[in-house]
Predict the structure of Chorismate synthase.
Amino acid sequence: MSLNSFGHLFRVATWGESHGPALGATVDGVPPGVAVDAGMLQHWLDRRKPGQNRYTTQRQEPDQVEILSGVFEGKTTGTSVQLMIRNTDQRSKDYSEIAEKFRPGHADITYWQKYGIRDYRGGGRSSARETAARVAAGGLARAALDHLAPGIEIKGYMVQMGPHKMNRDRFDWDQIEQNPFWVPDAQAAGDWADYLDALRKSGNSVGAVVEVVARGVPAGLGAPIYGKLDTDLAAAMMSINAVKGVEIGEGMAAAELTGEANADEIFMGNDGQPVYSSNHAGGILGGISTGQDVVVRFAVKPTSSILKPRQTITKSGEATEIITKGRHDPCVGIRAVPVGEAMMACVILDHLLLHRGQIGDAGGKIG
Amino acid sequence: MSLNSFGHLFRVATWGESHGPALGATVDGVPPGVAVDAGMLQHWLDRRKPGQNRYTTQRQEPDQVEILSGVFEGKTTGTSVQLMIRNTDQRSKDYSEIAEKFRPGHADITYWQKYGIRDYRGGGRSSARETAARVAAGGLARAALDHLAPGIEIKGYMVQMGPHKMNRDRFDWDQIEQNPFWVPDAQAAGDWADYLDALRKSGNSVGAVVEVVARGVPAGLGAPIYGKLDTDLAAAMMSINAVKGVEIGEGMAAAELTGEANADEIFMGNDGQPVYSSNHAGGILGGISTGQDVVVRFAVKPTSSILKPRQTITKSGEATEIITKGRHDPCVGIRAVPVGEAMMACVILDHLLLHRGQIGDAGGKIG
Amino acid sequence: MSLNSFGHLFRVATWGESHGPALGATVDGVPPGVAVDAGMLQHWLDRRKPGQNRYTTQRQEPDQVEILSGVFEGKTTGTSVQLMIRNTDQRSKDYSEIAEKFRPGHADITYWQKYGIRDYRGGGRSSARETAARVAAGGLARAALDHLAPGIEIKGYMVQMGPHKMNRDRFDWDQIEQNPFWVPDAQAAGDWADYLDALRKSGNSVGAVVEVVARGVPAGLGAPIYGKLDTDLAAAMMSINAVKGVEIGEGMAAAELTGEANADEIFMGNDGQPVYSSNHAGGILGGISTGQDVVVRFAVKPTSSILKPRQTITKSGEATEIITKGRHDPCVGIRAVPVGEAMMACVILDHLLLHRGQIGDAGGKIG
Amino acid sequence: MSLNSFGHLFRVATWGESHGPALGATVDGVPPGVAVDAGMLQHWLDRRKPGQNRYTTQRQEPDQVEILSGVFEGKTTGTSVQLMIRNTDQRSKDYSEIAEKFRPGHADITYWQKYGIRDYRGGGRSSARETAARVAAGGLARAALDHLAPGIEIKGYMVQMGPHKMNRDRFDWDQIEQNPFWVPDAQAAGDWADYLDALRKSGNSVGAVVEVVARGVPAGLGAPIYGKLDTDLAAAMMSINAVKGVEIGEGMAAAELTGEANADEIFMGNDGQPVYSSNHAGGILGGISTGQDVVVRFAVKPTSSILKPRQTITKSGEATEIITKGRHDPCVGIRAVPVGEAMMACVILDHLLLHRGQIGDAGGKIG
């Protein structure tokens, strides 16, 4: 009943604090024979690495991942894989003030109320640095998926920054890697840059909405009830720091649809597989994948570490004002994109293994 | 790794199909000495019972719960509690057509693709009847909460039906039990009645948004990372049939806020407990409860069993049209209200027990 | 983290008390398409049914199992299977005395100390009646094994009653079903009958050693570390009422062997599979099956419900003497045989599913 | 469903191979506020460190443990604790031969058959080096027990080496730390020294029986069924490398007792707590602790890495002979003593936390 793990058969337990010696992930249930090395995982880590442009924290964290176990001569052995990332650039002094004050909107106060002790340096365990371990584990999951089910593509991107939504009519996959916001809309990228520059200079921050899509997921993955594919995706995304909402397919907007409008009509495709007239379901019906794109969105709240003064209290209960200096992300949603991709990869792999285990090839054919 | 269970220490495994002999819940980790009887659980079950007004299915399901284990002389013994509900009114003939055709927007096709066999009668395991077992287990969780932490109040209500949102300025707790929609807004109740009447007569259905609030939850509940209170709530709500989105506090709207606007400022209350200027966080920071109201919302899609003809295919892959006769809910969101309450009760109790186990009284005081 | 379940992917949660309305097992992770009906499960239940000869309790318990979910038209659907056994012959008055007194060697006192409440009727949850649910679940596991891996044979038998051990030189499989003790040694069966008759008449009871063998288990099952095949078998057997010791292969006697004597030498068989010169390992090396017979033994202590007077105390702490009337097994080891078989079947199936899930066909060939 | 973890609330996942860069344990569910540092854990690690006398392998492994997370300013924070031990002295060449040959009695062949790949250097994951991580985690569990339930003492010792059993009449606690075998019998220590010297010189090895006792464990710990205290202890001990049998209290000998002899009679002690005339139960009744000493024994088979030639096969299936050079323990049971203590500490702590969580102070009083 590990409360610091996620996944069923493919199980990831992350550990480590922002300013401890290291952080990492213990990954259990890895299929054997998967070709993987540190470089393959580093590729994904570098995408969330801070300090790459002016829109993310200027902390210099090389985030070099080491594989300490479970890989032999370039292949996974089927035993647990330990992924470790050393913490380097740690200006603890930046955090001295928050040792006594609780940042509004931050976990400072709840960690204290729960545990009676907390590592206040950089948020300790509640720091978004924890997500580096997820991204490393997600890279391992991607390698395993490529080995077991080639053709599954997982892609994340931002669809909204603050009040500004991208224009779906301009959706362009090729744009995603072309701008610092991973937004598939060149014009939005430009507008958002201006918006975020002004916000950053004012010492404020803002939220965002990230969408993650998995293409090529076979039909039949998911385990009702309660290990539904959408249930596990909702838990995976909501477990990411600062996430306040999760949507599958139509998400909250499904409330506004009639049954007639919401029902994705079914036809037979030329390849003998079912095709759908639409994908309101986000690729999941009854907790099981349909074979369509699996579409998940999540909202990331603005970081609470800002230069705007806010009213708060100290551990001893005195009223005070707080301004959080230090180097923080004006929009943490940007770096949440590779994290969302990683969680998607872990959940899809987990359910692929679960399906192999309980069902094997018993699934039903159509036609 | 039960995929048919939820919860950690307080663990609920539901079982049963819509048209099998019975369905129920096996509840593990129940604290001993809790006063409970079938009547107390029946109270909650009756709230989701169909056929109570013209806005829910006219199926007659008495949904009588029996306690088969774990209770002795009116008190829980600490051993597993088995809650069983016999299935009665079963017009299997109503479902003969869908044995061969897949309802668009329904789990028919994915269950077939996953398992190669399915109990098509009334949706079998994918039927919303499964939620009756959740409500019974939720009643048990409420009794345990009253025993261990008196004063926690859990209340669910609808805030949106189709495109029609309630008016928060008219929010009135006393209205919730006064209308068939459990909406805390008398005017909305009237408008929705007209809207749903028309929709029902047209053989269509519609979605809804349900909000569930837990008041009096102590600060410190939740287990980062990944057994966060919000993570478990997101999983619990997303696991409910037809749910497509889950929000905590501001939810998806958090994306539009600045850090300055989102940060709930902290003050000391007269009772020596922290108070907050607002509750954008929905009572949870860093996955741990703050002591404010825990606020969760979820969107329920419209039922896919409608009288509107839709294009689909048969098991043999032939194109066809389907109209789902039978007695279906025009808005399943209505009956999702007591289900959401039940899930909230189970999750809060589970985390209360987890906190007692790992933390005990080590939590930090303020002031 | 259900504490009332065992298994990983194939997961069994038993519930119910000796004198409640019913007891049963909620079985999760059942593969779909397995042909099974109540009669097939009843076959195994009848083997542990009491009152079949003078060596077991004379309680009349028909132990009729009902399948309430997860089976449709004679086949498993892949959803949870609920197995229920109604309690019938319940002479609660027989147990009135032990409501206040603690039986030495029984769970009476520990259940009271743990829970502060207990169902004293027939031992409540601590009654060996709970094992009926295990046998029903084991029958389901056997059916799934026959479906997925035909040729696995699981057989249990007694090898020792009190101080009397069977003679291995007379080992005869065909004898097992020929005597009330399931001992593969006709002469031992006769001797034990005389011994147990005398013991029973004196109002005493005695322990036993049961051995369970699984033949035809493929090499490669088991998940080091800690889901080893032997670890899970040890837990499964130790969880049976009254079991105090578990052995794999040589068991405790392995301590007396030298490395030279203990090492089962390896050769190639005519079928291209490895063969071994001996099976000190009991078919398990490093927690993984070798393909040899999986051999487990467990010791069952004598029942503590005897007619011999013993010194004890009451709930109020007063010294007293107790004689337990009622109809008890003089040697509970006899009825533990089918229970041990059931646990073996569940563990083997669970690890077969786990292996399919994580490993698939990645296992290594020899030659 | 981590298969590389043990424990429920206090959960330990070990990772690492014998000749990888490092190995360790990820420990979840640690209570906060526990004073601990690397030195405290090192104390226990040093007890199992090899090369301390001529009866253990002469490998030089400093086994220095590092705490990478979960401890801040000398106290546990309640977040996951990562314990890492770097591998140093690695003469991989010693193991070159076994890359192609399977050692009889060793996991070489089963790892290959399961995974199709294995780290053959020093046994990789199947190496007893893995137990170093357990001992480190056990040290953490001891510190938590001292913090939460002072007065619990956990002690392990050898009671048998090969055919030679200690003499219980000479049992002397003070002797345990006085001899290389941790045997509480000075005369046995001398005899065993001579016996093992001869065995070692002959290139052979031998098994042993280890007993672990926990004193001061409160009554009421354990969670029937299936998280029984004895079930979890059996699993914990059987999961240790080379263990083939586990006993609680009388263990296998319980089979020889009558109910009259086996029933530990109950009396009231002067302190108002129950006392027992004997402890055949090993401190556990119905899976729940009685308050008496918890007594567990386990048998360790002889190491299969010996200088005696044995017949075996190669990966390609050719018959061959093998002699395992290198520096191996003539009796691995010696170093299993601190490992058994560590497992006992982890299980007791886990059940203490579980009891706090589900039961709190609801337990029943006597008198």
